[in-house]
Amino acid sequence: MTSNVGEAYMLPRDATESQRLDAQHEYMRQMSYGHLIHPSVPAHQLKAVADVATGTGLWLRQVAERPVNAQASSRGGSKFVGFDISPQQFPPTDSLPSHLSFVVHDFCEPFPIDYQQEFDLVNVRLVSYAIRAKDLEKVVRHIISLLRPGGYLQWQETDASESWAQPETSTATSCVNYVIAEKIHRGLLPSWSDDLMRLVHLETVSTFEHPSPAVQAGKRAAVMSAATALLKARISRQTTELESLSSLNDKTVQLKELESLNETLAAVERSNDTNSSWDFDVTWIVARKAIILNNITMGWMTAKKNASQAPEIYR
């Protein structure tokens, strides 16, 4: 398992996690009714697309392979760039078409000037598990710097504190509690609130009544696979911390917590919750960067309640 101790990101970067990320992507695509790009975004007009915190880059590769994008790229008219803090999960470079590239970048730092105001669409997904609360404002600022005026941001997010199981079991409750505790330990947003961003378009889709058979069949696995990875990461971290403790009392407390973590992990891996139906919400945010019209400049994102007062370009 590749360690990322000290980073905000909660999960490992290894072959198993790459497989989980790819499975998660397909699941999220089903949650989005098969859409890679939100229907409110004019996908046929996109010539430059960025994917921030791209991971394995599967979303970006599938967007780049769409017929309209493949045709544009053959004429040298499009580009697709994936950014991530680590290259460990990038696809092999020799397998990539010329219009598709991956760049190592930490979104807590400003993007290089060559990429600023270069993209028609920026995609962001599930980064509340990688952003420290104190960094949120600057991360959003850095991400929108990638957009050309009039460019679109689409952002999908879930909130661990709003995952639930029916019937609720002790294992289910422990999984959610440990995920939240790990986020707090790393200084991440303990929960994701829509109030953290000013929005033009907001859509929330729940797994609870989603019509897709794939969603209904796979929603438990989507939660439990992530919980398993997080539990293993926390056990590894606390085992390492145990070796550095000098106080007998501290060691006793740490050992008890490790025992509890291992019991929860064992319960998950034994599939004790096969009768539980896991559900969660996915919030899909779409916003558009400001355009100056008649010497009037609107803010980057206009509050939804004020959208009716915005220029036509925002609607």
Task: Describe the structure concisely for a colleague.
Helix 5 (170-185) packs across helix 6 (213-244), helix 5 crosses helix 7 (248-269) and helix 6 packs antiparallel against helix 7. The chain has helices at 15-31, 58-65, 67-74, 136-144, 170-185, 213-244, 248-269; strands spanning 48-52, 79-84, 100-104, 119-125, 147-157, 164-166, 201-206, 277-279, 281-288.
Q: How would you describe this protein?
A:
The chain has 315 residues and is an alpha/beta fold. The protein has 7 helices and 9 strands; from the N terminus they run αβααβββαββαβααββ. It has helices at 15-31, 58-65, 67-74, 136-144, 170-185, 213-244, 248-269; strands at residues 48-52, 79-84, 100-104, 119-125, 147-157, 164-166, 201-206, 277-279, 281-288. The strands form 2 sheets. A 7-stranded mixed β-sheet has the order 3-2-1-4-5-9-7, covered by helices on one side. A two-stranded antiparallel sheet has the order 6-8. Strand 4 (119-125), helix 4 and strand 5 form a beta-alpha-beta unit. It is globular and about 65 Å long. The termini are far apart. The relative contact order is 0.15. Residues 295-315 have low confidence and may be disordered.
Please write out the topology:
Blueprint: H1 15-31, E1 48-52, H2 58-65, H3 67-74, E2 79-84, E3 100-104, E4 119-125, H4 136-144, E5 147-157, E6 164-166, H5 170-185, E7 201-206, H6 213-244, H7 248-269, E8 277-279, E9 281-288
Parallel strand pairs: 1-2, 1-4, 2-3, 4-5
Antiparallel strand pairs: 5-9, 6-8, 7-9
Helix pairs in contact: 1-6, 5-6, 5-7, 6-7
